[in-house]
Design brief:
This protein is α/β, with parallel strands linked by helices and about 270 residues long. The protein has a single domain (about 5-265), classed as BirA Bifunctional Protein, domain 2, CATH 3.30.930. About 35% of the residues lie in helices and about 25% in strands.
Length: about 270
């Protein structure tokens, strides 16, 4: 899938093996009051995509105003997070609807999301990762003027003096007729904080080489506007979408994303 862009009107059709015209991509810009609400919005949009409520690919970005730890859907909090350090530093802990390991969000870490409807059926997972990450890597490479490459299962990395460093970690949730793909873009995040609140992950890609967080992660240093522009370019999100599922977000926040029993269930 390298070299393919949504702008070519081939990406999503080739992934889903259909000959129908590809859906347009729309940009959703929503200012929500909390990271919990932002995570709930991703799940609500996935539900809408699965139910056929909208035909477009929805693309969006957001940034947490304060540091927050976000567990993967199957992450064990005690295994991946130092809860004592989080408490000392006032860092909240949340859980997201997708898989993968725990991450730290906050100022300097842009979250990006792409929600894709698949009326026939969602494609295999091994096709989704390159379909999402290759066009984003190309767009980021044009911004940085340095190669941004896909590494491991779902990382983006750049070359540094001591090897390749991760600048983006990503995860997905797949339903029969919809796919949520979202992740991080490190720009100026406090990497010392990451080292303080996260334990070494229980699973890691080969290219990490058992390096600690501080020696494995890197910031892109592009600024929020340029990162958002790269995401928008990668997925051809020209038109804006004003509507979003407010009632569903409120319901999900109350039922799960603000509920300690759900967050700390593992």
């Amino acid at each position: 899938m390298a070299g393919v862009s949504v702008n070519d009107h081939t990406l999503f059709c080739s992934v889903s093996h259909c000959m129908m015209p590809c859906p347009a991509s729309v940009w959703l810009d929503v200012d929500l009051p909390s990271p919990a609400a932002q995570l709930a919005l991703d799940e609500a949009l996935l539900e809408e995509a699965h139910e056929g409520a909208f035909p477009e690919v929805v693309v969006r970005v957001w940034m947490a105003a304060e540091p927050v730890v976000v567990l993967g859907s199957s992450s064990c909090v005690e295994e991946e997070v130092d809860r004592g350090v989080c408490a000392e530093r006032g860092v909240a802990i949340l859980r997201r609807p997708s898989g993968g390991a725990t991450v730290v969000l906050g100022p300097g870490c842009l979250m990006w999301s792409v929600i894709t409807p698949h009326p026939e059926a969602a494609p295999p997972i091994e096709q989704i990762h390159p379909a999402m990450l290759d066009p984003l890597a190309e767009a980021l490479s044009r911004q940085t003027r340095l190669p941004v490459v896909r590494r491991g299962l779902s990382d983006l990395a750049i070359q540094s003096d001591d090897g390749e460093r991760k600048v983006s970690g990503n995860a997905l949730r797949v339903k029969r007729h919809g796919v949520l793909y979202h992740g991080t873009l490190l720009d100026s995040l406090d990497l010392d904080l990451v080292s303080g609140v996260l334990r070494h992950p229980p699973r890691e890609p080969d290219y990490r080489g058992k390096r600690p967080h501080g020696a494995f992660l890197a910031n892109l240093g592009l600024g929020q506007e340029r990162l958002a522009a790269a995401v928008r370019e990668a997925f051809g999100a020209v038109e804006s979408r004003p509507a979003w599922p407010e009632a569903a977000v409120d319901r999900l926040v109350k039922a799960r994303y603000d509920d300690p029993a759900w967050i700390f269930r593992l």
